[in-house]
Amino acid sequence: MVAIGRDGVRRIGFHAASGPGLELEVVSRGELCGRDEEGQLREPHRTEFHQIMLVDRGRTHHEIDFVEYRCAEHTVVWVRPGQVQRFGPTVEGELVLFTPVVPAPSAEVAALLGDRPGASVWHADPAAYARIRDTARQLLLEAESPGAAADEARRHLLSVLLLRIGRLGPAEPAPADPDGIAARFAEAVERDFASTHRVADYADRLGYSVRTLTRASAAATGRSARELVDARIALEAKRLLAYTDLPASAVGRRLGFSEPTNFGKFFLRRTGITPAAFRRGLARA
After folding, report:
1. pLDDT at position 4
2. How high is the pLDDT of residue 6?
3. Chain-centre distance of CA 1, in angstroms?
4. Which of 45, 91, 203, 220 could make an SS bond with 10 (beta carbons 3.0 to 4.6 A apart)?
5. What confidence score (pLDDT) does residue 5 get?
6. pLDDT, mean of each 10-residue run, the chain (285 residues)
């Protein structure tokens, strides 16, 4: 279920019911936990695909990128590729697991699949949740009819599921970014945070001044451009410390720090604890 690769990365896998051609599965929470014989779902691990969790009944918590979210009935949780997660107690409900190429293509679906900061967690009203839940059940039924026609139906049903989730509205308030500068900056940081930590480098690449990036970032997020770069580096540091066995010095090198002491000072300044203390805290959680 959760494998440890040669690079020390814990990876969660899934079983595509219709075979290797369509990377899509609907699985009950109980069945997923049944595959996890060693309880590794309770440990931090990184997904390489999209995961939508529906909570029908019960109460649990789900940790996404080191933030814990409380989940009761009618909760929808969307974990995206690259995010680190940790499961809480088992509840009644199902998970829809899929890679980005599976849904039937459309501009609306592509927008929903795009990278987004933070977690996507909704506490839906009963009627909206029932529509989402019904679509997930139809996906499960189509999995019992293998063949090209069934696969095509599942692609479109998955798109319907995503669009219905999209109707729930943004999981967080939409940022104020009328010119799109903050969004372009965020995309550049996501792409290059391990290669450069300097806001001036991003400004040069995007064709803006440092002051413009700082103003746009502050208006959209309430944080300066420098803070956004540091926050992204710190998040990736936490992810690597949590789901790999890499020593802290190697984590620092991956993130562009030439000296281990510089990485240690950065992590302490951003989080208030050392990398070693952060790892020890995860082991106790």
Report:
1. 40
2. 39
3. 19
4. 45
5. 43
6. 43 53 84 74 85 94 89 94 89 92 90 73 94 94 82 93 89 69 92 95 95 92 93 95 92 95 96 94 71
Distance, in Å, from the CA atom of 26 to the CA atom of 246, rounded to the nearest integer, reads 33
d(CA 110, CA 101): 10
Task: Tell me the pTM.
Answer: 0.75
What does DSSP say about strands 50-57 and 24-28: parallel, antiparallel, or unpaired? unpaired
197 Cβ contact partners less than 8 Å away, ≥ 6 residues apart? 229, 230, 233, 256
Please tell me whether residue 65 adopts helix, strand or coil conformation.
Answer: coil
CA distances from 261 to 81, 221, 252, 268, 277 (A): 30, 30, 9, 10, 15
The C-alpha angle 99, 194, 172, rounded to 5 degrees, equals 55
The phi and psi torsions of 268 (rounded to 5 degrees) equal: -65, -40
Predicted local confidence at residue 87, as pLDDT:
92
Tokens of 135: 């679509």
Instruction: Please report the DSSP string for 267-278 in residue order.
Output: HHHHHSS-HHHH
CA 258 to CA 243: how far, in whole Å?
22
Measured in degrees and rounded to the nearest 5, phi and psi for residue 26 equal -110, 125
What is the chain's alpha carbon radius of gyration, rounded to the nearest angstrom? 20
